[in-house]
Amino acid sequence: MDVSSWDGTLSPHEFSIAARTLAHEWKRFNPAFPPWTWVPSQNRLGLASHNVDGYLTLEKLCIHGGPSEIHMPSQEEEVYEEIYTEKEELVDNATLVESNSCELHFYDFHIVYSAAYRVPVLYFRVYSIDGQPLVLDELKDLPACSEKLLLESKWTFITQEEHPHLNRPWYMLHPCGTSEWMKLLFSSDASLAKKGVVVELYLVSWLSVVGQVVGLTIPFELLNCLKSSLLSCCKQDAG
């Protein structure tokens, strides 16, 4: 891929490659954290194809209500525990992030390919322990920097749209400026432009930016190690 003439988008096939790379690296660096799971698309009669064979999900991420962030803890932090309840299966096998409040909110995140924009889109929903969905005004879990990021951002905003695979309303970070800033991100690194590793790095790099809005952060060592590994493989192939 010639990054100098690249428009910052992905084909459906490239999205699938990037998605599997993200899921693999996430699990490798964060084995105690809920995994990103690839969900195959279901062909539905009368509906147009999404032109991609699936999407990524990270579900039942639990956080106490209050002004705290969803974060990526180190492996040494003992912040995880299984939640069991006889009343709701909703909280089974969920992950708990400690905070100072007793109110629990559950987050589901989906990374879906947009055929219109040819880029990934982050969809999310939030619900209470009884399964009731929460609206944006009720969300006190988002990072303190989210409002500032969204107000100053020229590349995204939170909106509510129908989930393209589930046909239900979900919140999403609008992808209107994604291709532009992804092109800028990769074109600034000459080593990536020459070695053609953009596809494998795409979703990891993308989530390291958009995830900040909802408190999901990519460990620096994940991105750095993946980049080094890909460039090393390219060097060996060239040799």
UniProtKB/TrEMBL annotation:
Molecular-function annotations in GO: Atg12 conjugating enzyme activity
UniProt cross-references to InterPro entries, sorted A to Z: Atg3/Atg10
GO cellular component entries: cytosol
Protein's UniProt keywords contain Ribosomal protein: no
UniProt keywords, alphabetically: Autophagy, Transferase, Ubl conjugation pathway
Alphabetical list of Pfam families matching this protein: Autophagy_act_C
Keyword Aminoacyl-tRNA synthetase: no
GO biological process: one example: autophagy of mitochondrion
Domain of life: Eukaryota
Family assignment from sequence similarity: Belongs to the ATG10 family.
Protein name: Ubiquitin-like-conjugating enzyme ATG10
Source lineage: Eukaryota, Viridiplantae, Streptophyta, Embryophyta, Tracheophyta
